[in-house]
């Protein structure tokens, strides 16, 4: 299988990559040998980007302790996520300057300064690039036009192989994404002969998702970001994409939502941490659709729709194909997380823990601590989506009832362990499955595999899935 390079541009790109990591952790199918995440954002302190970097690194740390051979049934964390650099970024040079310093405005003659004043406002010129482009793609197109000369971009080109694919995530209504996508695409399709594998880049299968407005920002007279400009910016960009982008992309995905929630108006830095949204999950599904597509030789334009338009989406509101792609792996991981969070420590005396040699020291080792923190991120992701507008709320997110009633729209069937209660049923399945484990495998492998097999049996026994 080939590698899949995923470029996440700006805050939206980072949040989509976050959603992708949780889908891959749950075992949603990805027909790629590995996913290579690459984040592009001049805002080094961007809260969304830095959270995504931490999630991707924790995924990688967990995955490195596992092995997947022909005898392994576990699909949790099956697809490797392999960043080319520790921070998963393509670094933007000179991003700590003001925009006027970046373009050497002070050294221009009178005529060129007059020309610049026609293209950029005084606010643009005084803008600090350290927090991004504040919804101004005209600035972004100037600054980002030099990332193809960066060492990170050169490393990307050097690692690229025949058959590898590229996917680009961007929003169309902001500054970084709207500017970065066309420039990145141009630099790939007209890759410099000075780059290694430039001919492979020029002909590589490229997929892209362009995210249309799906949230708003609150009014703030001190901010340069204004919700009322989102639609006009989107229309202008779509017009350009029609003639300057779509023909260069093998699979182009467009996603947006008319039902929007106004977020806090944060121009950037650590305060930019938007709640997870269903559109970001749908965008991550676009990446997997592209990765699993056996024919990417022609130009396609795709959209995503739900079966039922509702403020709070459940699995049954999705189309049949999407529903079946998600319900089983996400639910298995849902039960996996709940048991680890609420029951594992109190069940170290159970047969499965003794068989797997799961003792207190294991829970304090680096592997389990990284896994636990990753799972906390996963739970927070589900909670944020369930509370957002438009919400994605397939689970009750409550442990005060039988957890098998937690999947909305799916009735739990009576099984052979019906006399036992929720977590007791899981423990009974764990005891049974642990006896089948290969004792020569590492403790990490056996730990993940017994939980994967247990949750798989539970889904079949309780929901006939």
Automatic annotation (TrEMBL):
It comes from the Bacteria. This is Uncharacterized protein.
